[in-house]
Amino acid sequence: MKKKVLVGGLLLSLLASVFAGCGKNAQSEAAISDDAVVRDYESIDFDTVTIMDEEVPLGSSVNNANAEEQAMLQNMARTILDLVNQQRAAAGLAALTWDNDLEMAAAVRAAENVQLFSHTRPDGSDWYTVNPQIMHGENLAYGYNSAQEVVTAWMNSPTHAANILYPQFTRCSIAIYKNGSTYYFAQEFRY
């Protein structure tokens, strides 16, 4: 099975253009997409976008996993944040804090990526329209089996690493949706 990762959201100014193409991540032999979506937050007309209205349970997953699987997914999501914060500390950056509102948005995005693995939502709208008031960056992945694998893949991709290491981001949440034996990851960032 191919493993894929996408990145979107606010990126460093050197990533202000849209990147396209795929490369190979030598560590995990995963196809890494360097597609980047730069969101011009100042130009969003909040009167014309739909704020998230889906009811999403907390717990980093919106699937029908049993309680034990839910606890495992929640633990994996928190481990991902710990590993991301290790990367930020090594770069001299402040740690990201968990955001429960952002977790609900990430849960929607993780579930949507089973239908359409993209920064475009299944209804054709942009990724951040789940909740544009709090969603400023997004990393996606699927097919990885551990927190370390997905963080390694993101850090080996310049655009994903740019989101993880963006100094102005202060909060982050990760949701994981399990579909069969495949995990879908959504990492959301905010200021």
Helix content: 25-40%
Mean residue pLDDT? 75
Largest sheet: 7 strands, mixed
Instruction: Say how many strands there are.
Output: 7
CA radius of gyration is 15 Å
Distance between the termini: 35 Å
Beta strand %: 15-25%
Classify the secondary structure makeup into a structural class: alpha/beta
Q: Major sheet: order of its strands?
A: 2-3-1-5-7-6-4
Number of helices: 4
- Low-confidence spans: 9-34, 40-62
Shape: globular
User: Element order, helices and strands?
Assistant: EEEHEHEHHEE
Short description, anyone?
The protein is an alpha/beta fold and 191 residues long. 29% of the residues lie in helices and 21% in strands.
Describe the fold and architecture.
By secondary structure, this protein is α/β, with parallel strands linked by helices. The protein is 29% helix and 21% strand. It contains 4 helices and 7 strands, in the order βββαβαβααββ. The protein has helices at residues 67-90, 100-115, 147-155, 158-164; strands at 4-9, 22-25, 30-33, 97-98, 137-142, 171-179, 182-190. Strands 2-3-1-5-7-6-4 form a 7-stranded mixed sheet. A hairpin with a 2-residue loop joins strand 6 (171-179) and strand 7 (182-190). Helix 1 (67-90) packs parallel to helix 3 (147-155). The longest helix has 24 residues, at 67-90. The N and C termini lie far apart (35 Å). The model is unreliable at 9-34 and 40-62 (pLDDT under 50).
